[in-house]
Amino acid sequence: MTSFTEFLAALAPIEGGLGVTATDDWLQGRTLYGGASAALCLEAALRLIDGLPPLRAAQFAFIGPGAGALEIRPSVLRRGKSMAFVGVDLSGEAGLATRALLSFGTARDSAVAFDGLPMPAAPDPATCTDFFRGGPRPNFAHQFEMLDAGGGVPFSMGERPEYKLWLRHEDRAAAADLTALVAMADAPPPAAMVRFPAFGPISTVTWSMEILNDPPAGGDGWCLMVSRAETMAAGYSAQAMYLWAADGTPLMAARQSVAIFV
Description:
The protein is mostly beta strands. The chain has two domains: 1-106, Hotdog Thioesterase (Thiol Ester Dehydrase, Chain A, Roll); 122-262, Beta Barrel (Porin). 11% of the residues lie in helices and 42% in strands. It has helices spanning 4-9, 34-48, 178-185; strands at 12-14, 17-21, 27-28, 31-32, 55-62, 69-79, 83-92, 95-105, 129-130, 144-148, 162-169, 202-211, 223-233, 236-245, 250-260. Helix 2 runs antiparallel to helix 3 (178-185). The longest helix has 15 residues, at 34-48.
């Protein structure tokens, strides 16, 4: 299995960007898994554009399959005193696969502060069971540990299409940074699958996120996720996603539009 650390280490310079080959163990069906695509876009921007302030928000559109030899090219769209906007295109052998808009911003003094995202109660990871119940999972999902923390599970026909689970990289050498967090944050299947009567194809269309804090260094790598499908209609689902560090620090608030074929 190609670890996350090895996958990033394989990135090599090409004209205007970075190149890497999508290995089978990072695929979802015929395309690079969305979290890995997003992480590569972020990593390319951080490596190739000097002096960027912290990432504050990002949007990703998953336009087509990303397979085989990949090319990731970032470009500065605008850079001001405090904000920098970077566009990134990830292309595969079939053409444009992912387009990203990354918004970076320096911290500033402010008279207001509020934290309205307390981490929900969850059992200790040591007491939790495998989220997939030992059953089949996509290739890329073997790259992560996922534990059921008391929410729904796919195909259970539960009333609430919502997951609560613990996540971390199987690669224990993966850095505790935003690239690793983004790669992991898309790992669970869409929460709409709680209401699926049986397996059916899905495809993430867009993913937007706000970065609330950097992942803390140290610890055992666990993050708690809540993923909730808010609507399902006409073959699409809108879902909200939240991640916290194990110490309760809020890390990410995100949304996805997901195409469902059930």
